[in-house]
Amino acid sequence: MRKRVKTLAMSLVLTFAVATPQGKASAQGILPKPQSYAPAKGTFHTRGRQVRVENRVGDIARNIYSEPWMAVSKGGARQVMIFDRLSPKSIAGLTLKDGAEAEAYQLHVSPDTILIRAASADGFRLAWATVRQLTTKKGVACCDVVDAPAYKWRSMMLDVSRHFRSIEFLKRQIDAMARYKFNRLHLHLTDAAGWRIEIKRYPRLTNLAAWRPYATWQEWTDNGGKYVEEGTPGAYGGYYTQDQLRELVSYAADRGITIVPEIEMPGHSEEVLAAYPELSCSHEPYKDSDMCPGSVATYDFMENVLLEVMDIFPSEYIHVGGDEAVMKAWDNCLLCQRMMKELHTDKAGLQAHLITHFGNFLNAHGRRLVGWDEVIASRLAPNTTVMVWRETDLARKAIEHGYDVVLSPGDYCYIDRYQDAPITQPTAMGGYLTLKKMYDYVPGDDLTADERRHITGLQANLWAEYIPSDEQMEYMFWPRAMAIAEIGWNGAEKKDYADFHRRALAECDTVRAMGIHAFDLRHEIGERKESFTPVKHKARGCRVTYNTPLHPKYTAGGEQALVDGVRGGWTYADKRWQGFTGTEGWCLDVTIDMGSIQKLHEVSAVFMQSLGPWIYYPTKYRVSLSEDGKTFTQVYSQDQPQRDPCRVGYRTQAWHGSRKARYVRVQGSCDTEFGWLFTDEIVVR
Ligand code: ACM
Ligand code: ZN
């Protein structure tokens, strides 16, 4: 037994000794925070020491990462490291959540003993992640830890379609994710911008649909979104061979991480339809975005693809996407129409039929379906997991259907949004999602305790439309992934952001030492400073008449919000900006009644631009004044038919002058089909 442990330890030294640097760990610095941690005096010294390893559990410790000081097990050493079996019943004082047994562990470190008790290889590996964080140059800090996860699905999603990522990049993230006790990596392998997985039966997916003539997603979409043959000079893209993916799966598994592959259907499939146009309703490339769910060819194709996918990925769950199908081409497709008639259903029902088919197909092959929350409409087996990315109310709906839920709501988990003052950051999707906002997320806070039992996990998503490089991807990923790690492991009951922030700062140094380009949390600027201080002005509390409607989703708390003295932050999503839309005439048109005729010197308003969510500065802007509310005199006008090239910005439009008036009218126009206009406090002085 001892010999086996020694051999094992030595081979692991070769494999893993450089995988994670020893940071300046402090006993108080574990991230994610353990459920129970009691520091003790002293250190289990490792420098130049002989440590006897006693494995009382046999094979179960096989995947433990090792350290050079563990390689000696001759006996006679004063210090001992013991691996022992934990029966979940014996875990002191900790109530385990359903399914948490395998990942639970107990750890005791005293100056001469490290005792790790766990019920499975996963438990030992996770205990070892804690030991690593307790390790300083001297040794392992003494303590007692009793620990188990709050959620059994702790995951990050990487979009490798919009911009292709190297295998080395993926391995770096896996190394760091293992340190923070993640257990799944979801790879978004297919989307319009490129198919990234070799499928031997369908070579056009990778010798055409993985390549494009423009390196950035933005240039590519601006220039028609076409693909080019592999090998075309200047072609951008790439794909993972099946051998590369198998090796990656094994690399991740050694670190306790299951890779969940996502193969999108039926929407987000432009690249598939360019390579195999017969799978679209029109049978023409570059016309439709969804596969034809009325055609048997689609089912054959996807089954064949999934067979190869399942052969590469042992994951119990296979993600089939299911989100955002446009369904437009289905209206005029004879096959789609025929199938809807046969099934007595509509387009949503047709999509549900397709997803149900693939749920059954995966089940028949011993796998389970996971999909975005659009799959709720399907008739799937109760072993399905739904990833809720839109309104959290959909979690309740999924649970009513008997499905498990992984929460991934945009407002808290979409890390393609800006993590700091947008004007200081590389281009992102828009929004403003700080480490703190993610940390403050309480999963399922609107659900009952019974419903919450179906929340099996938490995931953050990194969509990559605006992320051309590995470095920028890491910048968006870290440290925000740590917030998901913390909630996913420790739960959301005992929040203390100051403590988490302190630990995250130290861990940023550690991930940097691992070669990761993390965001500079130490120099975070934070929220828009104007939003902290109420602004005093003459129109505060005055009556506002909306000559065109305010969008009901973006009222900022009601009509009065435009003159309440409270200014918005960096994002419209903070519910402090009012939103207007509509291409006809003025989309913003309000009149403020000042109550009496007064001498006015200034009327100003701030507008936001954020190109990701189609928010633009007004193309036309007017301020008019009136004494009687009937006859208005225009005092300020500005026309800007050209869009500002900057992606995100905040612009003040102000009239300055001197006039008597009681009524102030402010007008702005949108002038694009999808466009939005967001404004905040209208200040009158
Ligand atoms: C999604 O963001 N469309 C899942
Ligand atoms: Zn069709």
The overall pLDDT average reads 92
What is the CATH architecture assignment of the largest domain? Alpha-Beta Barrel
Distance between the termini: 83 Å
**Number of beta strands:** 25
Q: For the record, what is the CATH homologous superfamily label of the largest domain?
A: Glycosidases
What does the main sheet amount to?
Answer: 8 strands, parallel, barrel
Number of helices: 17
Number of domains: 3
Write down the overall geometry. globular
Portion in beta strands = 25-35%
Strand order of the largest sheet: 7-8-13-14-15-16-17-18
CATH topology of the largest domain: TIM Barrel
Q: Determine and state the CATH class of the largest domain.
A: Alpha Beta
Write the layout of secondary structure elements.
Blueprint lengths: L1 H15 L19 E10 L5 E5 L23 E7 L19 E6 L2 E6 L2 H14 L4 E9 L5 E7 L7 H13 L4 E5 L1 E2 L2 E2 L8 H4 L3 E2 L4 H6 L13 E2 L4 H13 L3 E8 L4 H6 L20 H17 L4 E5 L12 H10 L3 H18 L3 E5 L12 E4 L4 H8 L3 E4 L2 H4 L21 H5 L9 H4 L2 E8 L7 H8 L2 H11 L6 H17 L29 E4 L31 E4 L6 E23 L9 E7 L6 E7 L8 E21 L7 E9 L1
Parallel strand pairs: 2-3, 3-5, 7-8, 7-18, 8-13, 13-14, 14-15, 15-16, 16-17, 17-18
Antiparallel strand pairs: 1-6, 4-5, 4-6, 9-10, 11-12, 19-21, 20-25, 21-24, 21-25, 22-23, 22-24
Helix pairs in contact: 3-6, 8-10
The structure holds acetamide and zinc ion.
Family: Belongs to the glycosyl hydrolase 20 family.
Catalytic activity: Hydrolysis of terminal non-reducing N-acetyl-D-hexosamine residues in N-acetyl-beta-D-hexosaminides
Organism: Prevotella pectinovora
